Amino acid sequence: MLSITDLLTVGYTVAxxxxxxxxxxxxxxxxxxxxxxxxxxxxxxxxxxxxTLAGVVVISLExxxxxKDRDVVLAVVVIAGIAGLALAMLLGRxxxxxxxxxxxxVREVARDGxxxxxxxxxxxxxxxxxxxxxxxxxxxxxxxxxxxxxESSRRELVAWVSHDLRTPLAGxxxxxxxxxxxxxxxxxxxxRYHTQIGRETGRLTLMIDDLFxxxxxxxxxxxxxxxxxxxxxxxxxxxTSAEPLARVKGVxxxxxxxxxxxxxxxxxxxxxALGNLVVNAIRHTPSDGTVEVVxxxxxxxATVSVSDSCGGIPTEHLPRVFDVAxxxxxxxxxVPGEGAGLGLSIARGIIEAHxxxxxxxxxxxxxxxxxxxPLADRSSSRHGAGQPSAVPDTAGPSQAAAAGPGKQLN
Length: 410
Hints:
Strand content: 5-15%
CATH architecture of the largest domain: 2-Layer Sandwich
Distance between the termini: 97 Å
Number of strands: 10
CATH superfamily of the largest domain: Histidine kinase-like ATPase, C-terminal domain
Shape: elongated
Order of helices and strands: HHHHHEEHEEHEEHEEHEE
CATH class of the largest domain: Alpha Beta
Helix content: 55-70%
Strand order of the largest sheet: 3-5-6-8-7-10
Number of helices: 9
Structural class: alpha+beta
Number of domains: 2
């Protein structure tokens, strides 16, 4: 039996040999850093075998083991080393093959525009990497589609708004020239021209104001000065503002909500969003129809539903209801009293800036817009008064459901 001193000597000897072999292996690995994983694994296995053989030889020279025992140990180490080297090479080849499969899949993206994960079984780390690449490519593709839809919507908006601006401007110019040249001298006609000029100027002002608000939403520059507000009070103010339009149109306007239901919002901006929904409902509800606004609480969220009697929205138009400048029609002929088709897009941008959601569905003999907002105790920690709020692009589709007869949207 070896003494403690002999054991310490063997330990120091083996540790020194292992340290030298490890240092040499690290140098070799650094020199071969750009080579394949198979080469690195072979180097690791080789260093292990060489260190073991060197330890056995040195210890035998120190007379700690006999020559016969040394030969047996060396034979065992050599056989195990060969097996280890072979296994390391096989493992390295498998990892290299899996890496080549992933590289081929990535190269296919440039040709097909789609990342298809390799069908072979990959090592766990490469399988996770492949899954993440697939997810990243899917998100990039979705972002590209959204960007294309947004760009298309913006081009459409520019064309439509240009048309909407030119039409009233042409009328204003004609009336102004008639008044300036003295072509119109009848006092009654002059008063009618003045009234029409004022009306068209107001409509252009509202259109430009909507464009300015929408540009702030798209730029993420919408500032929200939030404070606790009773949802019922907010709905009451919106109904009061929309009452004259409903009376002129002959539409019954009803509303209800619990005034104590608190939301932490910018009352002016959210009032604009809800007002756009109510005005849109009134404009597209026939005379003697009903528009109803209801505030409630559902699953810890404040909800506002705006229901009209428009006859419903066609199925093919539901996904585009909140698109910029979408009116549910192909021919873009301005209708007196209508806006530039930005109201619903602005409403969605403002509601999403409040961490809310908006959806539309057909309900009964009309459609229903549903707004969901966080209650005050859940949202006050996320919004600060006067802080800018990043707003998602409002050119894409929103949630929508079933279909009905046609309706124009503003």
